[in-house]
Amino acid sequence: MKVITSILLTLFLCGLFPVVAISAKGSEPVMNLIRELGCKGCHMIYGKGSSLATDLTEVGSRLTAAQIEEFLSADPATRTKDFMPSYSSLSREERQLISEYLYNLH
Ligand code: HEC
């Protein structure tokens, strides 16, 4: 009986832990931000969105978090394809949140 209880407890904790880990990382607010800003109107993230621009799921293998952050606030005139707007009106914290999130997707 004791063994069964500890197996059940382990299974329960294993199932629970990733959920706790994800919410601790704060992926919820960042997903809301990405949705509100309309990034997926041009980009794909985990198979959802548009393919007008690059798939952002793998962007962390191309750019560092700092480069992504810089890219977000860059003047559109400096972009190769200039139809991505500048997100310089976001706070530094918001840009960091998005950049860290995207960087850690790969
Ligand atoms: C209107 C379309 C559009 C929207 C909206 C848009 N992007 Fe982009 N994005 C682009 C285009 C086009 C490029 C390629 C720019 C270039 O080549 O210089 C790009 C490039 C990027 C890159 C560099 C990707 C790489 O592989 O080098 C990142 C990171 C990025 N976008 C993030 C975002 C985020 C985050 C948002 C939302 C806050 C967003 N984009 C919204 C069109 C868009």
Describe the structure.
With 106 residues, the chain is mainly α. The chain has one domain: Cytochrome Bc1 Complex, Chain D, domain 2, CATH 1.10.760.10. The protein is 53% helix and 4% strand. It has four helices and two strands. It has a two-stranded antiparallel sheet. α2 crosses α4 and α3 crosses α4. The radius of gyration is 18 Å and the shape is elongated. About 6% of the residues have low confidence. The site of heme C has 24 residues, from α3 and α4.
How does the major sheet shape up? 2 strands, antiparallel
At the first level of CATH, what is the class?
Mainly Alpha
Average of pLDDT:
85
Number of domains: 1
Uncertain residue ranges: 19-24
Work out the radius of gyration: 18 Å
Strand order of the largest sheet: 1-2
In the CATH classification, which architecture applies?
Orthogonal Bundle
Structural class determined from secondary elements: mainly alpha
Q: Output the number of helix runs.
A: 4
What would CATH call the homologous superfamily?
A: Cytochrome c-like domain
What is the global morphology? elongated
Helix content: 40-55%
The distinct ligands, each listed once, are: heme C
Short account of what is shown:
The protein has helices at 2-25, 27-37, 65-73, 92-103; strands at 44-45, 48-49. It has 106 residues and is mainly α. It has one domain: Orthogonal Bundle (Cytochrome Bc1 Complex, Chain D, domain 2), CATH 1.10.760.
